[in-house]
Amino acid sequence: MIARLNILLAVALIASALLLVNSQYQARRLFIEMEREQSLTKQFELQWAQLKLDQSTFGKHSRIEAVATQELNMVPVSPERTQYLKAVEEK
Length: 91
What we know:
The chain is an all-alpha fold and 91 residues long. The chain has one domain. The chain is 74% helix and 0% strand. The chain has 2 helices and no strands. It has helices spanning 2-58, 61-70. The longest helix has 57 residues, at 2-58.
């Protein structure tokens, strides 16, 4: 009777030890995954800040005007280059 109780307690102890090892492994694995995701979050935040800076830089009126005149060879509108169209009234 005592031998059975000792065997049962030994099995329970081994099962508890295995469950503890498994729990610690899962905790470490989840911690490593969390650290990796936090690192990705920081990278995405840096990229977002860079994109917002680029948007503010490239969206400025002076930058747009400079690109239009230098790269696209556009010129400002002047009255002598303006053509006005009149609508023809149908009767």
